[in-house]
Amino acid sequence: MTTVQSPPIAHRYDFCLLYEVTNGNPNGDPDAGNSPRIDPETGHGLVSDVCLKRKIRNFITLVRTDPATKQALAGYDIYVKERAILNHQHDLAYTALKLKSDEKDNKKKVSNQDAARQWMCQNFFDIRMFGAVMTTGTNCGQVRGPIQITFSRSVSPIVDLEQSITRMAVTTKEESDKQEGGNRTMGRKDIVPYALYRVHGFINPFLAAQTGFHEDDLELFWIALGQMFETDRSASRGEMSARSLLVFKHDSQLGNAQAHRLFDLIDVELKDPTKPPRKFSDYCVNIKENEVPEGVSLIRPF
Question: Whole-angstrom Cα distance, residue 252 to residue 57?
């Protein structure tokens, strides 16, 4: 693999993504029978940051894989992917750099870990973006990524509808013999009729300088936020779509305003609070653009 040669980003960014689900389960909780995650005190729906990161990683895999070789393009491999053995990923760095993973000399050992960590950042997009703990097995150190994403929260309380379903087949003959009147197997699906979710994210240019996260990476990340649901269709998730991405770009690396004050400029409200929402147009998105602080610009990638 070759390294990515490009300057890191030089601005701080704070962003807000609005996305929706219709007749689906955006993020099931395995400890609750895979029903939609919910805040029990308010009834608002929740989606974990890990869920969205998985979709982003899957999108990057699709668009940065050579169709001829089925291999990731240089600098755009994914560290956390399905069936990946993470310790084997660590070995790649030591093999590529011809380093000894069992080095006894402490200074050389630390130097090897630093070199391996840098190699992992250069070659794995999700490490360069989200960071990773790579201390198990062959030690490649730890990376704090420049992009951090919060839990998503639905704008309005959600309703979890449990739907019964049947399967007209069974897995074994013994199971079929036990069924009277046919092979039907009962099951269930949990769906949310409609929900609009809001998630906040932060991009730190100082950490980007450490991982090598650059402008081309940032552009790809914005595209991933808009397209990640389009390549992740399934019956269980229903119709999920990214509706709006609002990005606050700071003129400086430290930032020109606190993130929470910028997010307060975005109001998402139901047009008619007496009716349950069933589509995006049931909401009104108001942005106080005239109150955006000096030194901060509002960008709308979509």
Answer: 29
Type of residue at 177:
D
Residue numbers in the chain where pLDDT is lower than 70: 1-5, 179-184
Name, in order, each residue with C-beta under 8 angstroms of 94's C-beta and a sequence gap of 6 or more.
Answer: 100, 101, 112, 116, 138
Tell me what pLDDT residue 2 has: 46
Of 4, 16, 7, give the one whose Cα is nearest residue 203.
Answer: 16
Tell whether the torsion through CA atoms of 72, 73, 74 and 78 is positive or negative.
negative
- For residue 294, what are the contacts with CB-CB under 8 A and spacing of at least 6? 256
Q: What ranges do the domains of the chain cover?
A: 13-162+189-299
Enter the DSSP assignment of 280: G
pLDDT at 3: 47
pTM of the entire predicted model: 0.91
Helix (H) / strand (E) element for 61: namely helix 49-63
Which two three-digit tokens encode residue 271? Answer: 């047009």
DSSP label of 7: P
Residue pair 246/285 in contact by the 8 Å Cβ criterion: no
Q: Six-digit token pair at 253?
A: 């690396």
